[in-house]
Amino acid sequence: MKLTEKLNQARGPFYTFEFFPPRTDQVSKTRSYRNLVSNHTQGFNNLLLRITRLADLKPLAINITWGAGGSTKERTLELATLTQRDYDIDTVMHLTCTNMEKGSVDTALRVCSSLGVKRP
Q1: Nearest C-alpha neighbor of 51 from the set 94, 23, 28, 84
Q2: Cβ pair 28, 78 in contact under 8 A
Q3: How far apart are CA 66 and CA 76, in angstroms?
Q4: For the chain: N or C, fewer Cβ within 10 A?
Q5: Which of these is catalytic: 5, 18, 74, 101?
Q6: What is the residue-wise DSSP string for 7-68?
Q7: What digits encode the pLDDT tens for the residues 60-116?
Q8: What's the pTM?
Q9: What angle do CA 69, 72, 76 make, to 5 degrees?
């Protein structure tokens, strides 16, 4: 179901969350994101632990912000893919188009589509 349909059908209060990807290294080599258990992880790992806990609240969607000029584009794409695929939460990628090169928005949208992050 599309996010717009979920919004139209929502009865009572619902949750959505917005995340800004950290600038620390990615963890794309990790196979099981739900099994991260260390309390001392930082950056991307820490954010994944928080998303795991917040996913229990059954949010309607998650919004992930793309840094100005694409400064966090890889992390944004990875995080959007994870939340949609591994947590089965509709994910909205908030594209900040400030200082972006011509054509980069179209490229970002094509990459999102290929990773399974669809239009709301």
Answers
A1: 84
A2: yes
A3: 6
A4: N
A5: 18
A6: HHH--S---EEEE---SSPP-TT-S-GGG---TT--HHHHHHHHHHHHHTT--SEEEEEEPG
A7: 999 988 876 667 778 888 888 888 888 888 888 887 777 778 788 888 888 888 877
A8: 0.71
A9: 120
Angle of helix 73-85 versus helix 104-114 axis, rounded to 10: 30
35's tokens = 């099994």
- Contact indicator for 67, 93 with CB cutoff of 8 Å: no
Q: How long is the chain? A: 120
Per-residue pLDDT tens over the stretch 43-70 = 888 888 899 999 999 999 999 888 766 6
Residue recorded with tokens 């000029």: 69
Closest CA to 115 of 72, 81, 75: 81
